[in-house]
Description:
By secondary structure, the protein is of the alpha+beta class. The chain is built from 15 helices and 11 strands.
Amino acid sequence: MNPIAIRLLNQQLISPQFGDPAQVVSHMGAIQAQEYRMMRWAVAMRTRRPSARAFKHAYDNGEIVRLHLMRGTWQLLTAGDYWLLLTLCAPKALAVIRGWMHSNHISITDEEVASIRDILVKTTADKGSVVKEDFVKALAERDIHMDDHRLSYHIRMAELSGTLCSGNLLPMKATYALTAQKLTSPVRVDRDEALHTLTRKYCQSRQPATLEDFVWWSGLNIGDCRRGIELMGSSIHEEKWSGRTFYLTDDCRTRGFRKGRYLLIPPYDEYLISYKSRDIVLSPDYSHKAHNNSGIFQPVIAHDGIICGNWAPFKDERQAEFFLGNHDDGIQAEWERYRQFLTK
């Protein structure tokens, strides 16, 4: 087994199969979207013809939705998976938020949640797509003032209730819209069905991965993750590699890998954040170059799937620093692909 080649193929980073951004997000199940500007490249680089315009079209039309979900962090989902994953993941996500509130000595009553949510809903309904400053202004007009942390908790709880989701895509600022105006009506989903879907999408797009990887990524408890794998039945199998047990689907992609390819990977990308153990593609000696212990991830360069350097996405000229190996100018083609994505 060549785990690096298999991951590159099934994560759609090499020989991508899809032309549409929403198809990529659906394949992945959820894509980390912590960095508002770079989430666009995280999706687009997995399409055959990366296009910032195509991503914006899918986002503004509600084909792709952004909200806080797994591990209390930003995720991109498709409209088709929204209710399914919200039903499955919201209870654990709410527990995470309550834990943070307790740690920060913040107490929010049910009465406060209801009254503030009414204001958030009215403000969003009036404007269609709003930024956080619109909420601050609406609250101030009612002589309600709260710090950013408290307001963020209210917004996250509104997201997890299915009330708010992402609005239109702006260059720099996150926006919010009413889910009822952006997406179709809620659909009741059996929990096992939701768990099977999430497990299938994780395994098909992150393979080979371990049970511990899936627990980390999903934010679910280990019992749920074991149940998800059980629900996969005969469509999944185990393989041992380097003393670890990995799961692969029976339709795993194994052909199409091309040596010599460079990838300019955005911060918080699924290529790293999908796994609890990242040593397969990132030497522990250089893990600090990719992320710190506080969960801040940097833009990185991969060569043949191995993380070997850092790059600067927001510069007009290519800036690359390598910390592993000797590299020629082969990265230029990937830089040009990224720059073309910005203009298409």
